Amino acid sequence: MRRSKFTAALGVAAAVAVLGACSTDDTVNDSDDPSGDGGETTSSEEWFVQADYDEQDAQRDATFEGPAEEPWLQYIDGEMTDTSAFATKDPQKVCFSNASISNPWRQTGWITMNQQLEVLVENNVISEMETRDADDDDNTQIADIDYFIAEGNCDVFIISPNSTAAMTPAVERACETGKPVIVFDRGVETDCATTFIHPIGGYAWGIDTAEYLIENLEEGDKVVALRILPGVDVLETRWAAAEKLFDEAGIEAVDYFTGADPAEIKKIMTDELTKGDVHGVWMDAGDGAVAAIEAFEDQGVDYPVMTGEDEMSFLRKWEETGLNGLAPVYSNFQWRTPLLAIEKIVNGEEIPAEWVLPQIPITEDERSDYLEANDGMPDGHYAKFGGEDLPGYPEVWQDRIIP
Amino acid sequence: MTSLSTLDPERSARPPLRAHQSGLMGRAAAAASTPGGAIFLLVGVLLVATIVANPNFGDPGVLIRFLGRTAPIAIAAIGQYFVIVAGEFDLSMAAVVSMQVVLAGNLIGDDPGRVIPVMCLMLVLGALIGVLNGLGTTVLLVPSFIVTLGMMLALNGIVDYVTGGAAAGNPVDEFREIGRGTIEDVPVVDVIPYPLIILTVIAVAAVWLMRRPFGRSLIAAGDNPAAARVAGGSLVWLKMRAFVLSSLSATVAGILLVGYAGVHPSVGQGYEFAAITAVVLGGVLLGGGRGWVLSAAAGAFALELLFTLLTALGIESTWRDTVQGVIIIVAVALAGRAWQAGRRPSRSARRAEASTDSSTGSSIQPPSPGTTTGDS
Questions:
Q1: Is B276–A16 a contact, with Cβ atoms under 8 angstroms apart?
Q2: Which of residues 44-103 of B touch A (CB under 8 A)?
Q3: Burial track B85-123 (b if 16+ CB lie within 10 A, e otherwise)
Q4: pTM for the complete prediction?
Q5: Could you say which of 1.10.12, 3.30.565, 1.10.3470, 1.10.287 is the CATH number of the domain covering B35-335?
Q6: Residues 39-58 of A with CB under 8 A from B
Q7: Is the pLDDT of residue B350 over 60?
Q8: Closest chain B residue by Cα to residue A256
Q9: What does the domain layout of chain B look like in residue ranges?
Q10: In which domain, by residue range, is A79 found?
Q11: ipTM for the complex shown
């Protein structure tokens, strides 16, 4: 009796311990990283596709068609989709299956999208938009898409996929309805969609950031890479490209998963600083950058060379500290593009089959311009949100009421 | 663990506990062989290992900062201890931390004048959550595992609703000073972080509480709820206070974390399991009735040291959780062994006891039930 109580307690304790160990990355529900052999580069090699890397490397210098003052309409010249069959005068009912609004980047984009929607509703392009939020869950999103197909009464589908492979069949089912399907942000493994809208991509991010750090550091210097979570293609490719370049340049890079938890980030940075000098900080997304910088402050050591993101919190801290940095951009204005694509579709205009938007980092020289332009915006706002000409600017973004 | 002696008049007739017989060293050795004591050995081993892996970690200034940053999780572990020792669980802890962090960010903002009122509000809300958890467990008789799980979901939902899952800005620096600030220019250790001072105060208060009738009854209730009820204690009020202490400690941890790291809905994630793991590592029996509150706090330090050690060793990011999990299981298993070894008096001790008995010729002494240290 006594014995069994104890054994049971031990069993529960062990279970709790395992759960405790898991809970630091509990947002990762799919694609457990199978790099069980512990090889230093295995995990990123799986995500590294040389052809994609080369393509995005070239696209960084590509010429973009379309008006420069409206980057959300720009695209790289390529195959176009004929949409004349969809031309109509009737206002369209749009069905939007969204992966989530669980990070500040998606929230900012979501706000911008709603303001763009307001304009198009007023212009009688769109009658209404029904949105289902999958809350970062593949199964929920599949159910959302199937619901839209079955009883959504939709004229157009917009899908921002939660994950690449899992969402492919659902997107294909949406395509089979014969109605326009617009995919944006993360991709799927089918080209059945009318258009796939995205900024250049993760490799370009990785190249921009790694090249900046390599330029500003010496061979043998140490870089700490702070990554949000494994298994998301747009994040994995950022690291895959950066790690390759660090390796080639002889920069010592160690990576950590932080879940964007600032407490975790600060602990990791503090431990690394206790261990030895850290010369550079690389982030796969800027959320939490401030905590990383604060670790250097609290430790009383020199600021690192650092790449963050165009999130206001990083831009402000960057200016305040005067550290040597770069703000890569995963163009937030892409959230406008799907709705504007609908406008082109109902007009029967041809649109790019793969709509590659510009993705240009913010440098120190441009920083003050962006800070000024986004004065009064909250810390979670993204400088290149691209909504300055929309109704409600700037209050809607300043108040940041999530629609 | 020597708790009930004052309530038990028969005790005075018994020989002193074995742990009280030998000198200081002997007593320390006896304590170290219990799970609640073994954790301090584990902390020592991990500390040495970390310093070996990274000599800079041995610097007093670095160590004191480490103690400071571990304060929130240690405070959470102390709070969780009250609930676990009473035979319950509090899974809502992490959600309370997140909620308080987000509240602080949203309500305080840039206005230093709001620091005090918002902190009061946070403490009231923390206490209220504890009351609800306690009511659900004791009055509605829903297992605490479920009550607090439900509370966790409800609070997470509120956090998501308020934030949409992303961070607002950080509150004013005056507020963040509580978790980030230090007393400067201290000899030897360089600085003393405020969180460490707060932890010390809470630890002292917790030890005091556990020596009060409240603490004694809490352990009794965890050990044998039926007996505690028959003995006339009100389990409702008793356990409710344990839950209130738990969510208040989560609130304090949240306040410190806002200072240490800043506002983000992910702050506090995993705290319930970290706190429970710390408590179990500290040799506190899941199911209640046994364990020392400071061992729970020590368990938190062991956990954080493990984390730091893995960083010092440069364990690959994809591996970390696995390594951490396996080490925790092994540590708890070893602590369990120590527990079993510690409760059986060694042969020589038993012989000595026998000879003492015969020499004093105390025939009226009741047969030793072997449970004087309060085990089950």
A1: yes
A2: 54, 56-57, 62, 65, 69, 72
A3: bbbbbbbbbbbbbbbbbbbbbbbbbeeeebbeebbeebb
A4: 0.80
A5: 1.10.3470
A6: 40, 43
A7: no
A8: B317
A9: 35-335
A10: 61-200+331-359
A11: 0.76
